[in-house]
Fold this protein.
Amino acid sequence: MDVLILARLQFAITTVYHFFFVPLTMGLSILVAVMETFYVRTGKEVYKRMTKFWGKLFLINFAIGVVTGIVQEFQFGMNWAEYSRFVGDIFGAPLAIEALSAFFLESTFLGIWLFGWERLSKRLHALTIWLVAIGSNISALWILIANSFMQQPVGYTIQNGRAEMTDFFALITNPNIFLQFPHVFASAVTTAGMFVLGISAYHLLRKNETDLFQRSFRLAALAALIGSVLVGGVGHAQAVHMVQSQPMKMAAAEALWETEDPASFSLLTITSADGTKEFVDIRIPYALSLMVYIKPEGVVYGINELQAEYVEKYGSGNYIPPVIITYWTFRIMVGAGLAMIALAAYALFTTFSERLEKYALVRKLLAKNALFLKVMIFAMALPYLANSAGWILTEVGRFPWLVFGLIQLPDGVSLAVSAGELWISLIGYVLIYSLLIVATIYLLRKYAKAGPEPLAAPAPAQDPAPSLLGAQE
C-alpha cells in the first residue's frame, strides 16, 4: 500500500471509531435532560433515578467520544499536511470556535451537573444538563460546518495556491449545512432512542424496575420514531440536493452508468467495476425522477457522462468513486432506517396496549411482546450500522476530492510521511481504539445490566434521647 491509501485508511478507521460515540452523546444528552425536566416538574423520585441511571451511561460514552475525537485533529497535521496548508484558513475557523465555545460549554457544565446533585436547586441543576445537551449539539454543528465546506465550498478565494476565506457568513450558511446538520441531529435522537429502548427491553424482560423502565421505554419509543422519520425526510432532501451539488455521488449510489430521463430507482444492481458488464439490474421505472423532481420525469446524469464532463472541466483523471461501496452503504443506511421506523412505531404502539387490549388483534400482537423485547435488544446495533454507512457514503462518494472541485486526495497527503510510519501508527491506532471500544462496551454493559441504584432505605426510627434529668437519675 502507498502513503495515500494508508493515510485514507487510517483516517477512515479513526473516524468510524469516533462516530460510534458522537450520535449517542448528542441524542442521549437530550433524553437525560428531558428526564430531569420531568423530575423537576413532577417531583417524582422515579424520574430522578432515571436521570441518574441514563446519565451514568451518557458519561461513559461521552468520555470515550472525547478521547477518540482528539486524535483526528492531529491527523490533519501528520498525514494531511498539504490539505491543512491549502484549506487551513477556512477549515480552522469552525474547528477553533467548536473547541473554544461549544466543547468548553459542554465539558464545564457536565462537571457541574455530575457533582451538583443536592448542591444546586432542582431547576438550576436541570439547567446544567440542558446546557450540556446544547453544547453537544452546537459542537457537532461547527464540525459539520467545516465538513460542509468540503462537500460544497463557499465564501472563499484562491490566493497563492491556498483557499482563503472571504465571507464567514457564507461559510456558516452553506446550503449543505441546512440539510447535513438536521440529518445528523435526527440520527442522534434515533440512536439514543434505540439505545434506551434496547436496555429498557432487557430489564422489562426480567421484570426489573418495571415502572422506571416502562417510562424509559415510552420516552425512547417516541424519540426513536420521531428521529427516524425525520432522518428519512431530511435524507430525501439531501438526495435531491446531491443531484445538483454532487451528481456523481448520486449516480454512484444508484449504480447509474448511463444518463436517464426519466430515471429509474435501483432495487438490485450488480455490474462489473467499470460498468461494462451487467449481471443483475432490477429497477423501478420513473421512481428516481419522481423522488428527485416530484414528477415522473427529469434527467439524472449517469456516471459515464459525468466522468467525461469532469475530465473536460478538471483535466484527465478518474472521477468515479468506488461504486460498490457507495451503492451498498446507501442501501444499508436506508434499510436500517426503515427497520428502525417500523420497530419504533411498534414499540410506541405497545405503550398504549392497556387502552387497546379490548381488540382481539391487539391481544395477539401483545402476546408476542416477549419476542419483540428480545428483538429490541439486538436492534440497538441498527443506528450504529446506519450512522457508519451514511458517513462512509458521504465521504467515499466525494472521491477523488478532498474539497469538492478544489483539491484532490493525492494533493492533500503529507509529503514527509512514509508508508512505514503510517503502518506503525495505523496498527497502533487500531490496537488502542479496539481496547477502548472493548472497555466501553464492558462498562456500558456492566452498568446497563446493573440497573439504577436501589432506593435508599428509610432511616430506622430512633428512641428519643434521655433527658438530662433522666440521665442523672
